Model the fold of this input.
Amino acid sequence: MIKLISTFICFILFCVFSNAQNQLTAPKIISTNPEFGDCSVDPNIAEIVIEFDKDMSPGYSVPDIINMPQIKGQPTWIDKRTISLPVKLYPNRLYSLVFNNSQFQNFKSVEGIPLNPYELHFQTKVVSCTALNKKSYNDLVNIFPSRYSYASLKGINWATIIEKSKSELENSQTQIEFGLKLVKLLRTSEDAHLWVEVEGQKYATGITKIVEQNYSSQLFARLQDQKISKGFGNIAGVIDSIAYISFRDWNTDFYNISLQNWSNSQNPYIPILDVLNELLKYPNLIIDVRQNSGGNENFAKEFASLFIGDSVAYERVKYYNENSGQFDNELIKWLIPSKNKVNYTGNIYVFSGPCVMSSNESFILMMKQIPNTTIVGMKSYGSSGNPLPYKLSNDVTIYLPSWQAYTMDGELIEGNGIKPDVEIIIPKENFQNKDALFEKMVWRIKNGK
Done:
């Protein structure tokens, strides 16, 4: 009898153990929509739905891989076993997703057991876009060339070019074909601010031309008290009682920039305002933007506005006028004094050159309005557009420059650039072993030239 009871207890324990083991097995995916291997998926579906065989924790891991669809927002758990991934799909495209991998394992059951890596592959069906492309052609002629601010700049007869391309554009089988034909057509503009976006990819119609650079990386070694920001986007230092600071772009909010002493990587980062206030103790300040091709004009304003006491106009722009159909709505850009303004009475030298373009050309115009400031170097590139997107019926988006930018003297910036106050043209071979412009200006400042 005792043996029988013992056997029965062992059986019960075995069942409990087996049940516990079963509960701790990894979760599995029991269905996906679209299904694995489906090669005729409707490209208009807006979500991918995955169902598991167990209740799941609320996390997820969808590592980035080749052919991954665009995830358009945050995945949502419909219930404890079903998750929805919002996506944007395109016709005739192979797509792949991975759920969990060796590094990311946030798909896990409520017991904390991760899903073993799972791959999903499917293809969207071919959808003819001819009807939409015909409608998109009409969309195009309604905005182009009328809304393109520099349409008449080079004497191109855009209306004739667009009309000749009508059949080619309308008969495109896909939006990609339509978009690439449009890019080819618009290349005549050679405009760096005119783009076409197709399926999330932007295509330039005018690549920035190769220009003769008037700067050198040799400059950094000449500075004392060197400070740098992450990625060398900003450099500061001093040479012979001349302060120096550079801005490689205007892509970071000025007040979020910080620099670190180069001599010791363990030193804490210093807010840029504190760095600048140290530099302003010197009687001469060099602001170097020769490598800067633009960014956010408001970030450039944040810096320039530190140096003025009263509001000052720095640039004229002309916008499209709905009533006249011309670019004759004029707006004056103003530089407003910063609440953190500095009272610097020394001399400011702004280094400019052929790589300076877009919002950085606006920065040059800002600094031209500041007392005791001299723009030094070479003429800027000459490209300012403020492009705005226009989405066509087939989801192809064309970005058109929306303004004509002028100096306060009425000189068009596009194609002309901005001349420095002091032009210093130095052959490029002189920048191989040293920064010739920097060395020349240091000499001139020291010698009162």
Residues 1-22 have pLDDT under 50 and may be disordered. The chain has three domains: 24-123, 130-204, 217-382+417-446. The longest strand covers residues 312-321. The radius of gyration is 31 Å.
